[in-house]
Amino acid sequence: MPTSKAAEEAALYDELIGRSREMSVIGSCAAVLGWDEQTYMPAGAAAHRGEQSAVLAGLQHDRAVDPRLGELLTTLEGGEIAAEGDSIRAANIRQLRRDYDRRTKLPRSLVEALARTTSLAQQEWIAARKNSDFESFRPRLEQVLELKRQESRCLHETVMRERRAASKSAHPEDAPAPDAGATLYDPLLDQYEPGAETARLRVLFEALRQELSPFVREIVEASRKRESTAGRAKTSILERSYPVDRQRMLGESAAAALGFDFERGRLDVSAHPFCTGIGPGDVRATTRFDAHQFSDAFFGVLHEVGHGLYEQGLPVEQYGAPAGEAVSLGVHESQSRLWENAVGRSRPFWNYWFPIARRTFHEALHDVSLDEFLAAVNHVEPSLIRVQADEVTYNLHILIRFELEQALLTGDLPVADLPSAWNAKYAELLGVTPSTDAQGCLQDVHWSAGLFGYFPTYTLGNLYAAQLFSRARVELDGLDEAFGRGDFSTLLAWLRDKIHRHGRRYAPTDLIERAVGASVDHRPLMDSLRHKYGVLYGI
Q1: This prediction's pTM
Q2: Strand 265-269 and strand 282-287: pairing?
């Protein structure tokens, strides 16, 4: 029989989780509105949707900063549950404290203003992108930026206090000194990748760039030399006629084979592909189709379904508590990039799926060999559009955004100068220059949605994915043979055990290190790229 003190503490813990779950339900309502806004909402509803989003954001914020929540946390932090080490209950208390400390620093008026403004901004971005007219979007982007600066200043001291506390048991002497850019950027980055630091990411990303840029140049040169040979990657085969209804059928079949449960999820169409977890039994993924572009939709489906598999693998019994939530966007991205690239662009995967694709698109693929198809879907070429970028050059797109959004936040880069700065960065790092704003700084939804600090999680996701897949190959026998049979269950079960089931129980880097037995490093990604593309391009 539990003691009266233990029973009382358990009751307080249940109240805490109940309040957390209520906030999650409100958040799930906002997520439905966000999904609808990107899929089926008529353009004329934008202003009203902004008001709806603001009201829900305000309601959720009120519950998130309720003093009673703080009282419960303070009491529980001094009790036996919080002393359980890395137990799920102790982790929930730690993470809810983290969330509470941040939310109480944000005024309700700012939360509502951000929800209202970004809802409007996303609709205006869609129109500006369609018309390739950055100037029409510029005033709204300036407004979003100012709100994000306010948000960063509100959160700064809380984030820095946690860093100082963590450094007492770490090694602060090897940490690069923060600057004005990091001071503004860190609190926003921390929302998407808890514990990440701008200064450390700069060092990690620069190490990646130093190896990646020369490798891209090697591939481009090798490709030029082989342009007249039969081994050239004929990407035009991916631009033949691929009826949209058949693309959807093949994409849904592949998603189901990977393990995506369509009884607990769905696939729709949006201007910018995304995936959102609404709640238990409700995961929504989207893609976009082009009847003369095979790769966009198919690999977009694999990518978003990778996110969806993570959401469907979170422990349902912990819904509404941190242990039932994804730990970070970097880890989330690792799941999507692993399935899209490490699995979905591999020969074993297409040993099974290419015969099915040929039957589905007989007119387009009847004269194409597996080798030609693999060369096409793995073709490397510096390009303008991030979401269409190949596996090798993709991270260069992210490094550009990482630099630009820091400069936007500090004001070192005036918003009016963003198009020219963007074009200059693309010319410098990728050797290509956008001819329109739609191909340039208007191509991504993130800044209109207020997601400053989000972009670096894409590269972190690629780094994590390379380490995870490398470790999975060590621990799991016969993966290639299983993929060749269309069986992906062994890999999914491994990811469920190593990543999905833990929710936010561990910090992102701790979770990855537990899974792979090593710290986060750029070298496994470079090793995998060199091995795969060295063979494809003979370098």
Answers
A1: 0.93
A2: parallel
